[in-house]
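Ops channel
N.P.: pipeline sanity check, posting one input/output pair.
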């Protein structure tokens, strides 16, 4: 009898995990729609639950707080999936660091920038707008800025390690240039305000990286 119960639990476990993952995905997608439509402050956990078609208790069990939903949603859109693997260990970021040609590195970085901004740009605005009035959103916003600068510096350090930076341009200044050119606010101005296509932005960004950073033979 005990053996039968154990076998039944092992059989049901994958199904439960699949159902939990599906429920979690539904909650995150519902939160994304509501956050982008109404803003973070105006969206309640109850509204998210109703949008996702689940009980409020289910939302709290999955994410604990509304800020937990926001953080999980940001990580999903930034990284591309729910794996806890950080950006620095993602294949698309490592591809940049592993590329031997400095100009190709910078153009791959521009490609990654475009992909992430298309995916996460609207939520980034939600977090930015919520930060002044919400301490948790502010902490997330500050962390996003710090980590973004750090990853861009890693790219610059790799380029500098190939002795490819312009004469007189050090890593600190080059990292600030890449960070500013690649900043989501720049994408917002060009794509959202001026109507550039994502591919036009990517081409411009790669050109700007190369002209600003690289020594020319």
């Amino acid at each position: 009898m005990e053996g039968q119960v154990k076998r039944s639990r092992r059989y049901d476990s994958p199904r439960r995990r699949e159902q939990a993952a599906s429920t979690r995905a539904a909650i995150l997608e519902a939160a994304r729609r509501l956050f982008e439509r109404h803003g973070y402050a105006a969206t309640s956990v109850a509204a998210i639950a109703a949008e996702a078609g689940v009980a409020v208790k289910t939302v709290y069990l999955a994410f604990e707080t509304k800020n937990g939903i926001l953080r999980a949603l940001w990580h999903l859109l930034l990284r591309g999936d729910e794996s806890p693997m950080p950006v620095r260990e993602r294949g698309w970021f490592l591809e940049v660091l592993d590329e031997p040609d400095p100009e190709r590195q910078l153009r791959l970085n521009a490609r990654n920038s475009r992909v992430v901004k298309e995916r996460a740009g609207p939520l980034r605005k939600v977090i930015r707008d919520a930060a002044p009035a919400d301490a948790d959103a502010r902490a997330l916003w500050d962390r996003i800025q710090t980590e973004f600068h750090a990853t861009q510096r890693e790219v610059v350090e790799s380029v500098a390690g190939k002795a490819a930076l312009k004469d007189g341009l050090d890593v600190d200044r080059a990292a600030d240039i890449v960070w500013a050119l690649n900043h989501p606010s720049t994408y917002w101005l060009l794509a959202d305000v001026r109507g550039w296509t994502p591919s036009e932005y990517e081409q411009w960004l790669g050109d700007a990286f190369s002209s600003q950073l690289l020594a020319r033979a």
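N.P.: looks fine end to end. The radius of gyration is 21 Å.
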